[in-house]
Amino acid sequence: MFTFSFDDLILGQYAYKQKKECKSCQQLNTLQRLLFDDRPKSFVTECPPTITEIGRNTWSVLHSISAYYPKNPNKEQQKQALNFLISLSELYPCSKCRKHLSNYLKKHPPRVESNKAFNIYLCQMHNSINKYLKKPQFDCSQATSRWKGPWKNCK
To answer: At 16, is the secondary structure helix, strand, or coil?
Structure first.
């Protein structure tokens, strides 16, 4: 069992008498510390992401979007997907990458007419960049399952 005063409740600080808290309680306590602690938050002292980290995260977002893209998107969804890629080519934080993406989009107009076409298009674009960076190519026939699953070893 646990006890707390009204003041503790307001501050979100519970005095548990238990030796071990459950996972939900640990997460709640962590959240409360983040919300009510006056000390500077750790994210303030973290370094900005590197271009490599931004690139990896961008690919995760792009491939996840295409994996969950509608099988038969309507015209508005197609327009939004196209605009997203165009915006990325204009706003991406790495100028060299931005130029490369812009040139790629001009030479290879995005295929957004279906889920399958969009997945293959992004995989081919990613492989183009991997080739430029001398990285291995990915089998585009596996693109959807790579980002949507299911994979046996994923939790």
So the answer is: strand
Kindly report, residue by residue over 101-120, the tens digit of the pLDDT.
999 999 999 999 999 999 99
Residue 145 clears pLDDT 60, i.e. is over it: yes
Contact between 125 and 142 (Cβ < 8 Å): no
| Three-class secondary structure of residue 15 per DSSP | strand
pTM, rounded to two decimals: 0.68
Query: In this structure, how many other beta carbons lie within 10 angstroms of the beta carbon of residue 36?
Result: 11
Q: What is the DSSP string of 41-98?
A: PHHHHSPPPPHHHHHHHHHHHHHHHHHTS-SS--HHHHHHHHHHHHHHHHH-S-HHHH
Contacts of 12 (CB under 8 A, 6+ apart): 32, 35, 36
Spatial distance between the Cα atoms of 119 and 24, rounded to a whole number of angstroms: 37
Q: In the structure encoding, which two tokens stand for residue 69, read together? A: 């893209």
Please say if the pLDDT value at position 32 is more than 90.
no
